[in-house]
Specification:
It comes from Ideonella azotifigens. With 191 residues, this protein is α+β, with helices and mostly antiparallel strands. It has a single domain (8-190), classed as 3-Layer(aba) Sandwich (Aminopeptidase), CATH 3.40.630. It is 32% helix and 32% strand.
């Protein structure tokens, strides 16, 4: 593991650097066409593709507009449950995108909300973000609800902005501003 990778911990999760050894579990998540129907890419078909994606996450940290992707595992075991991260960090604009996915068996337990609270907090603090954007398929009710619970606001519909599984897809654009995050954090601390 990279010594400069920011490992995060929540009450139930460890957010850590994705490793080549995670490729089989990552592949199982990303090869599932039903699970990937909202993700924005076609399902993976070979283990080597998962290895390449993980390597791409590692190298994206050195890109001109870098990104960082955390692997999610419960504190009780080493099993990869999914990943989440910030990408396309525009230092000048102090903005980036947000992405995430979770294995079907781990969904519905509040794990991604817990992980994203840690990731967003890290981004606002360490990258001095002012804005985080997320793009979501209009029918992805679980993700839409998650973003709203985190304080994101819907900004509009991007017509046919995505293309995966053989079709153009509309996406909804959401954003979370630093002031929204600070207000939500203050409310959590007061409550």
């Amino acid at each position: 593991m990279s010594p400069d990778f920011p490992t995060l911990q929540t009450p139930r999760l460890r957010l850590r650097e994705l490793q080549p050894a995670d490729a089989p579990a990552f592949f199982e998540i990303h090869r599932n066409a039903d699970a990937m129907r909202w993700f924005g890419t076609d399902p993976l078909t070979e283990l080597a593709e998962a290895e390449q994606v993980i390597e791409g996450f590692r190298t994206s940290r050195e890109a001109r507009q870098p990104g960082i992707r955390w692997g999610l595992q419960q504190l009780s075991d080493d099993q990869l449950l999914g990943s989440c991260g910030l990408f396309r960090w525009n230092r000048g604009w102090r903005s980036c995108g947000l992405g995430y996915e979770l294995a079907p068996a781990a969904q519905g337990q509040g794990l991604m909300r817990e992980a994203l609270q840690a990731v967003l907090g890290w981004g606002f603090e360490h990258w001095a973000l002012n804005r985080v954007e997320a793009q979501v398929h209009p029918a992805n009710q679980a993700s839409l609800g998650l973003l709203l619970r985190l304080g994101f606001q819907r900004e509009g519909r991007m017509r046919q902005a995505g293309f995966w599984q053989g079709a153009h897809r509309d996406l909804l654009l959401f954003s979370l501003l630093r002031e929204d995050w600070d207000a939500k954090l203050g409310a959590r601390l007061a409550g």
